[in-house]
What we know:
The protein has 16 helices and 18 strands. It is an alpha/beta fold.
Amino acid sequence: MNKSLTSHQPKExxxxxxxxxxxxxxxxRVLSDHYEEVMIVERDELPKEPSTRSGTPQAFHPHRILxxxxxxxxxxxxxxxxxxxxxGAPSTQNEKMSLFTSYGSLQMVPPEKNASSSRALLxxxxxxxxxxxxxxxxxxxxxxxxxxxxxxxSQVTGVHIKERSEKKQERTVAADLVxxxxxxxxxxIKWLEAMGLExxxxxxxxxxxxxxxxxxxxxxxVKEKWxxxxxxxxxxxxxxxxxxxxxxxxxxxTLLFSAGGAHYPSTNPEEYEKELQALxxxxxxxxxxxxxxxxVPRGYRTPESVRQHFEQMESWxxxxxxxxxxxxxxDPIHGQGMTVAAxxxxxxxxxxxxxxxxxQPHFERHVLxxxxxxxxxxxxxxxxxxxxxxxxxxxxxxPLKGVxxxxxxxxxxxxxxxxxxxxxxxxxxxxxxxxxxxxVLSPRDIINARTLTMLLxxxxxxEEKQLLAELGDVKEQQIQERLDELIPSFSLAVDEKAIxxxxxxxxxxxxxxx
Length: 514
């Protein structure tokens, strides 16, 4: 346990975490500083080595922790990147990364220490850390079947558990706090409704997305010749995203993605290879020619991304919280899931520390509200990106703010950033854009009057005309006011410490190219 994070205030007695995935492990790590005992209830049998669990159907596909998430993970699990490297995960430090955009390509060499791995190895690494925390214990092959509540159902006081064995014994375990981290398969809404509570309609993005992943064996010389590759989608042309990256055991993963439901990437090996060739760049297909396929591609499909709004419930029960995909789940292509879970866990930690010194009425609703504000940039950015695809629709009690404007703004921004990188070998603009998309910076750090004035060069380009049409007839001194009308405020988007630690690191030391 991190002694420096303890307080003179006595700890509460017991917390239960439902689900032992990465969100659950992070949550348990946070709670271990605030509760005498933390119990993780996990449906699956815990693997004895890094391997995919049945409870993580997406684990076959690529996973990544964004820089904001990595900063948080490093705080709670210091040196976790070294653990990954020690277990065979390849280093991404100084690895050439190629990014292909609609306006040209960039080659980047990240100088900071990091590793790329499978979801299985990442989860294993965090679980090994959590298992060493003295006041945390695991209950595996156990299923939470419901919530125990007070007589008036105003407070959750524990959970009902059933063994997933032949005996199927049932019991009730009391707790001061129950946190649901069971992901997209969560039964929380069903449990709340069984308590007689009315759950608000969630916000959703009808994204109809699909992606397919294939594994390859990597010959020794290939990794030195080819780095990771990302080919960004061009939805207006019906071209999907393609990615290639390396993981442990000398393996590579390729991924194909599209949204809108018009076409799903194939899981047929021959068709899959043809679709790699149809990407915006042939580079991924060229690399794959030098790799040895392992098995056939596997697909993943989901009709929607969902953002719950539990914070709107006036009668939200005390002693209950939710973290991870059960709270808000995303289009996986943006790689936000684990990082958002880390942001939520960090916010829970902040709120629990504040609670030690200042009494907070309706504490759990307060935490949910703070988490909503903290994750708003991630939801907004992924929605803005996905709504470029024909057939994708946002559904909610209020329309999503600033989507069309942001799409035009980012088009012009990326065009200018790539131009600056190509002509002057200056990646500063693109670094800002990268930091926003990896949740280190707020969108407000990119979308503001100063940057807009810089973008509007008067060159008469299509991107500039489209952006001006969205902006409307507005005087120069009123531009920021107009932007405030168009774009959400993102009040809890920025972590100043994260910005300071990240912004001192150059994104790349190689030139861009077209």
